[in-house]
Amino acid sequence: MRIRVLLALGFLPVFGCRESSSASAEKRAVQEVPAAPAPAAAAAPSVAEGTENLAKSPILEAENYKIELVGPPEVKRGEAFEFTVKLSARGGYHVNQEYTTKFKVAGEGFTFEPDVLSKEQLTLSEMNAELKGKAKVTAAGQKTLSGRLFFSLCTEEKCLIEKGDVALTLRAS
After folding, report:
1. Cα→Cα distances 173→69, 107, 138, 144, 169, Å
2. Closest CA relative to residue 109, chosen from 22, 46, 160, 16
3. Residue 9: predicted pLDDT
4. Each residue's pLDDT tens digit, 60-88
5. Is residue 122 within 8 Å of residue 59, measured between CB atoms?
6. Does the pTM of the predicted model rise above 0.70?
7. Distances (CA, A) of 40 to 34, 44, 80, 118
């Protein structure tokens, strides 16, 4: 019995799968494609990752929510100022208390403390969420502070995970 098993195993390589000539040709063709050149090193981004191409309005309204970015219209260069992101639930929805609501802040010519607002800066109620942040303008002129709010709204039947972009234009002297 052992001899039969050993003999059968000995013939497996002969009867095993073989690569067809067309498959090996395809493999060679794939292997012969030259590699794409390595991308040039990119400069460090001046905005938080994932916040490029943000909206240009301080208010974003949808059927189920309203987001508002509030801050002073004028600031002094080098002096800290506060801004607030407000979320209001609508249309039978409420703010999901279990979801990590956060706001990624962006804008050239600013420093932020911190650059992602989360639970430490968050005030929640059933229908509203509010995040408070601080920023400094590093150069004079018209500046745009912007960001993306990540949040969740729920009804009795379902929850939605959303994001919304807002931006506030201010003048720095």
Report:
1. 21, 17, 10, 14, 14
2. 46
3. 44
4. 999 999 999 999 999 999 999 999 999 99
5. no
6. no
7. 18, 12, 36, 34
Q: Would you list the domain boundaries of the chain?
A: 59-172
Burial per residue of 42-58, b for 16 or more beta-carbon CB atoms within 10 angstroms, e otherwise: eeeeebbeebeebbebb
CA atoms within 13 A on the CB side of 171: 3
> Is residue 41 predicted with pLDDT exceeding 80?
no
Res. 22: pLDDT tops 80? no
In the CATH scheme, what architecture does the domain 59-172 have?
Sandwich (2.60)
Q: How many residues does the chain have?
A: 173
Residue 21, token pair as written in the block:
């000539």
Say which amino acid occupies 66: K
Q: What integer is the mean pLDDT of 151-169?
A: 97
